[in-house]
């Protein structure tokens, strides 16, 4: 009942259009994450939902109401900004109470709601402090608290964790996950750069690129069945390897030719693709070292990154537009210049046509 | 908030016209009402308190002050409240109301500023131009006779000559001393105290400074005890005391000293900030290259703060063009020390010739405008 | 910078000395006025203020008692008395002719051509002897150089505050300055907010116009406004001068404040908007408190400017007792009491003490303001 519905939403700044017609339905109570490269329009879209940015064209609904012309404060949303945006001259309590004071709510109600929110976020000891006397994590919790106090139908987060250090980011991420659990009826829309945040928090991920939606789906779905090369390479780290190939046989399963080697993939392909150039995608973690010569591709070891838990090996492979990365468990040793052969299970391979569309979605 | 485009263009432009007119009308009404309400309350307050406590001078002054300020606050409060009542942010037409209120509110905020600036700055420019073509009282058309008079007038020529002297000496000396003071005080532990003291004359009025310096220049006939510091030093060194501010030509410089003394602190503060903004690395590189402190200062630091020096220089130039108080207080333009600003003042209040005075004012503006424009441009560039 | 290894100590000393000299030159003039304002009015004109702590040497001309009062002693007619009369002092030299007022040391007996002797003791006691019985009522003139102990007094301040009208002028200046500082800030702050954060057609043009008006020299505005004031009957009133100072101060104020406000984080304002605050509330509850440094620095500027202004006050306020401000009064005194340094110095000090206190108390903000926009045009 309080989901968000976007119909052909567009945004132009003067003559330049930065959002090119977004259609998206977000269910009530869903946790949706927007990801995409910098400048793709995530913040703009979120701010249009909030009402901080006017909508150039299209219709936006929150719940059943068309909100295009409704001011932010009346849309039933709350927003948490990357920079926290706390009022620096007000105490934590006053920061959280500001909205209700503007709305002239009774004192007792303000008191009660702020205390409740502070309790949830373990901010009670800091209520009298000014933001400058708080740590980054505490500030972010205050910003979240300020949102909770508004009791919104939709929470909007714009990269709320990106100003925190790595450890704090993990802790706060878990906190947000718990928060969502405790408020199953509120819809949350969350913008991030960070894949881990997206994968762990989201019910559904919306991948955006250059003002368009590339794919919408559950995290594992995006990981396992990316709709196109962009999503395939955007989700997962290091990014999916891509190698050029030619289709030899179409049908229930597809046989591709990698030049020296061939592979048979359990992916159906239409007949007109016979002989077409395609892209083979394999995630680094799905590649293994094959006994000499028996793999999918051979490559020369260029760089070895030992991270302890895993080792990333960068191989120069003939025809590959970029080095092929192999992610191997544990510590592994390779000599620079060594020739190795890598293999993968056919079921873990992805095929994309010339335009980058996955054959699964044709 | 921009409204979404509608397809029917003629209808849209018509409604836009209507809504613009409505906005303008509401704006003016609300502004007027807010102003009227606040002034009425202030006047009523004055009358009331004046009635209760008649003739108490001190109270009167305080009251006038408080009410004057209160009326100003009152305007903003009343007009905004009125707007909120007119277009409440609740109820059925929230969106429409907010759009309308948002169209009006900027003008409520800007109104007083626009009116005051228009009246006190824009109108005078136009009016001065008009007056400069008119006779003494501004009623009779005088053609270009004021300009012709100006071209031939000896007093004007003297003022221009002196102004040029001021323009050359004061900005140069001020910037120079400011730069020296900034460079030196930045190097010592008690630099901040020194800065404060050098900066202090900024707080002193030109007239106050004139009194201070007139005391320094005080003259007693030879043989008697000198109480002016300058003459005491001169006689102490075996010279003859002088009435400094009456020595033709050189007295100009004694007046300039006052302005230099006042403004050096300003130059110092700005230049000191600029000096501290120089990347340390460039200085360290020069030190490693074996440059001496003087070389570092002239070859590394000064070139890097050139833009700031220019801004300081022009700011003081503008000030110099308008210098008036010092000349008025020290010599009133006698003994060959007349300057444009004081000359204009002379024609306004002693000559009672608004036409000629306006013409001189225009000359001052024409001299100031380009420097000022350049100054703002430079400052903007600097802060970006 | 000054921690570089091997800095030469001689240079450091040179810097210290140079700064000391600069500071001395920049403070001594003010110090002179300050010290003089507390000195005795006779001492101000007889010795430089830098000798204020030393005993003041002063030449006085005393007249001895009338010769007719001389009494005969041992064949000579003798006159005794004290040059100080009732007061006391110490004589460092005396003389009997105006050409040589310091000819004799105290205690020495001087002889005149007609056989008289004159002796003045250190404590001022004099003995004059005449060979014959003198006549006449005009006493002998005695030129005495005395050493007076330094005298400090607050009398000058009492004089200027209560009988020279400086007190009233002080109140007038306050009455002009406070509203002329608050009103422009208030108006400019609202305008600056609108120009920084509100959307309306013509915003950029309006901003450029207002800032462009910084170039208008104040003098130019005087005649048109004076005529306008007379036409609409505002005449010479406090309201008139408040508005004039407001008008002249606004462009710079708007320029400074808008730059500052535009630099505030956008998210904070958006946050407040999401919280339901209207522009009016955002302005009062968020912008004003956060702009405090900029407001303070402009306030100090405007305060100093208005307090120290002579021109606008001369034109828009009258010259009468009721309306004369400090700077105007000071200028008037310079004209009418040009030589009375006890009055001038005390008045000057009354006039500059308030801005100086404000200056030292709030210097931090002043510097910040200067750095934000070094374009005070006036
Ligand atoms: N006021 C504006 N005027 C013109 N273009 C703008 C404006 N604001 C944003 N843009 C453009 O819109 C695009 C989307 O910006 P947006 O801030 O939504 O990106 P984003 O996905 O949030 O990026 P990031 O991850 O870096 O925050 C960008 O290309 C940006 O340059
Ligand atoms: Mg963003």
Mind explaining what this structure looks like?
The complex is a heterotrimer of chains A (362), B (384) and C (378). Chain A has 362 residues and is α+β, with helices and mostly antiparallel strands. Chain A folds into two domains: 4-234, Rossmann fold, CATH 3.40.50.300; 241-352, Beta Barrel (OB fold (Dihydrolipoamide Acetyltransferase, E2P)), CATH 2.40.50. In chain A, 23% of the residues lie in helices and 33% in strands. Chain B has 384 residues and is mostly helical. Chain B has two domains: 19-110, no CATH class; 155-383, MetI-like (MetI-like fold, Orthogonal Bundle), CATH 1.10.3720.10. In chain B, helix 5 (154-185) packs parallel to helix 9 (250-277) and helix 14 runs antiparallel to helix 15. The longest helix of chain B is centred in the N-terminal third of the chain and has 44 residues, at 9-52. The two termini of chain B are 28 Å apart. Chain C is α+β, with helices and mostly antiparallel strands and 378 residues long. Helices cover 56% and strands 12% of the residues of chain C. Chain C is built from 13 helices and eight strands. In chain C, the strands form two sheets. Chain C has a five-stranded antiparallel β-sheet with strand order 2-3-7-6-5, with no helix packed on it. Chain C has a three-stranded antiparallel β-sheet with strand order 1-8-4, with no helix packed on it. Chains in contact: A-B, A-C, B-C. Chains B and C meet through helix 2, helix 3, helix 5, helix 6 and helix 7 of B and helix 1, helix 2, helix 4, helix 5 and helix 6 of C. The structure holds adenosine-5'-triphosphate (ATP) and magnesium ion. Residues 42-43, 158 of chain A line the site of magnesium ion.
Number of domains of chain B: 2
Overall outline of chain A: elongated
Write down the CATH class of the largest domain in chain A. Alpha Beta
Which sheet architecture does the biggest sheet of chain B show? none
- Strand percentage of chain B lies at under 5%
Radius of gyration of chain A over alpha carbons?
Answer: 24 Å
